[in-house]
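Cross-check.
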Amino acid sequence: AVAAVPDLCTVKVSSDGVIAGAAVTINDLIEALHTFATNYPQSSAVLAGTNLPIKATALADHLERVANNQVRNVGSWAGNLCITKGRPDFPSDLRTILTAAGASMMIIDAAQQRSTVSVEQFLDLDMTGKIIQGLFVPLDQTKQAVLFDTYKVATRCENAHAVINAGFQFT
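Predicted model, tokenized:
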């Protein structure tokens, strides 16, 4: 079982961002993003005095509109991206916002060789003999001003595919 592999089920929050194993649920990723925003408020000090959201908060807020709470409690971020990989017409919120955030995925093959790819590179990657190990979401906004936000237009607030998804990051 995947749950027996600790690296796939753990979430680490540091001043640089969030690392989430491939089996981490969407709700656990949301919690980690909120933890980052609470524990590292200085990460967005360059945005002080603006109405711009902290990057971690913007991502968490968007993820809270994905599917519904029951799905987010059992569905992993990696599973969502694998659905997108298998069905390019699947309107994945995660694909859009993680790409905009500059997230990278850690892949490991049968020979224990590790590689790091962007979300978009993953979608074209031959995964034969490989597994997704984890995800890194860079969140440190202290080195330069990063303006980041996401948008979703859907027929309902949650549990509805997006008509339009957008994510913007400007440095």
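The radius of gyration is 16 Å. The mean pLDDT is 89. Passed to J.P. for a second look.
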